[in-house]
Specification:
The protein is mainly β. It has two helices and nine strands, in the order βββαβββαβββ. About 10% of the residues lie in helices and about 40% in strands. The longest helix is centred in the first third of the chain and has 11 residues, at about 50-60.
């Protein structure tokens, strides 16, 4: 089994006021989205593992954004950076069990990086203020140059794409409800 991973290593700076680590599941792979993402003309989508592996280098250094109301994307509200991305199987939360393989696992594109905590206190307050175990935040990818295998299909299969960023939003508003976002311990 081949699992892809890439990272940019930043030096540790103890107590850096503007670098708050995060991690999340950006998307699920090889399964249909729960709803149509923006730009998909009402179609649910499947991002293939092969397409994600090929696009992995385009994800590093891309910005993370958020939108007031936590219900979408706002590329002008860049509040962080992705420094690591890898593909791996994981056991999802109970809400995702219906989409799992017989072994109870799904394939996800996991990312980590930093929020600019001092420059953008809103996302930090929203995510950091959640009660333990009550994380309702998810993520959504931003793409360009996506190739759809069959534009007439009811569910579009993306076979190639370039990542241009990601957004933090409410999990219920994400095209893939199995995504996640949380702050990491320093």
């Amino acid at each position: 089994m081949r699992i892809g991973a890439m990272a940019v290593e930043f030096p540790e700076v103890d107590g850096h006021p503007n670098r708050l680590p995060f991690e999340g599941c950006l998307t699920l792979l090889d399964v249909a989205s729960d709803k149509a993402p923006s730009g998909a003309r009402g179609h649910r989508v499947i991002l293939t593992r092969a397409a994600a592996e090929e696009a992995l280098p385009s994800l590093l250094g891309m910005a993370v954004d958020y939108k007031a109301g936590w219900d979408g994307h706002d590329a002008r509200q860049k509040c962080g950076i992705i420094t690591s991305a890898h593909i791996r199987h994981f056991v999802p939360s109970d809400a995702l069990r219906a989409k799992t393989s017989p072994g109870g696992r799904v394939l996800g594109l996991l990312v980590s990086g930093y929020l600019y905590a001092r420059d953008f206190p809103e996302p930090v307050a929203r995510v950091g203020g959640l009660a333990a175990g009550a994380n309702d935040m998810g993520m959504s990818y931003e793409l360009a140059e996506a190739h759809v295998a069959d534009m007439r299909a009811p569910v579009w299969t993306l076979t190639r794409a370039t990542f241009t960023g990601a957004a933090i939003l409410l999990r219920e508003k994400a095209a893939y409800r199995g995504t996640s976002f949380r702050l990491r311990k320093k």
